Here is the input.
Amino acid sequence: MVDGVGSLRSMATPTTDRNASDTEPAWTTERVVAPDGTPLTAYRQAVDDDGSDAVDLLLVHATGFCAAVFDPLVAALPPGFRCVTLDLRFHGASGRPDPLTYDWSGFAADVLACVDQLGLDHPVAFGHSCGGASLILAEEHRPGTFAALYCFEPVIMPSDEPRPPEVEGNPLATGALRRRESFASASDAFANFSSKPPFDTLDTAALRAYVEHGFELIPADEGGDGLAVRLRCRREDESQIYAHGGSHDAFAHLGSVACPVTLVCGATTDAFGPDVLAADAARLPQASVQVLDGMGHFGPLEAPATVARSVAAALAGHRPSGRGGAATAPPSS
Here is the structure.
């Protein structure tokens, strides 16, 4: 549970500067361009040494969030990882595609562009929800890209037939359209989220990072007063992303994944639990399933230190062994 009072008093103004709050870890900002021209923003962890023995670890967030929410998880990792976090299209400091498209193959393209343009050396990767599906879609499109994957409740429905995009009848999609999009200040946004499900169970630092980097100041020419903030991931975009969540074909191609995959869920999840993960694992050439106690679907943001220990145990043994196939843009699913 977040401790609202102290956090509200020190709430920072929303920013694209990942180092603005003087918290660990420190980051450098990297610009990436997706194959369709969408501008993306990634963040590379600053390291004190040359990191020659470290493993590149790419972390990809869930729908509606942003790269910065993984700061507490990254801070809890043991030495041995060079971390990169990515704002997927529509999220954080990354842009929107033009023309607009919500096919999840775009997220896979973002992942592959980040790997290629940042020169990640046969990385391991962690993905949460949409982020986990994005990693698996990327690996399916270019087998051998990753040395190993850790996916916390990836959005992969156990069905060979993708569903058509649906807003009506999809509670996540309709709920996103009802989301409050703006607040009088970042402190007001923090107070709102910390007082109601599902955000009230988030780690304080993760929630702070979400408010500071998942929101932006409303420009003065749009009525902003220098304090009022709004969501970076627009609610109509979030709704469409949810609507397309069952429309990709990741499940049908799980057999093409060429690296070990650790599939993980929270013991109290109401989303992608053990039965779904077991169905996914049965299609993967190398897979294991874990259930972590004391957390739900938002486990990486609820208990980042616990998840960090699990990630380290699953991924630490995988060393760079050369990159996978040539860079290609993933086809539409």
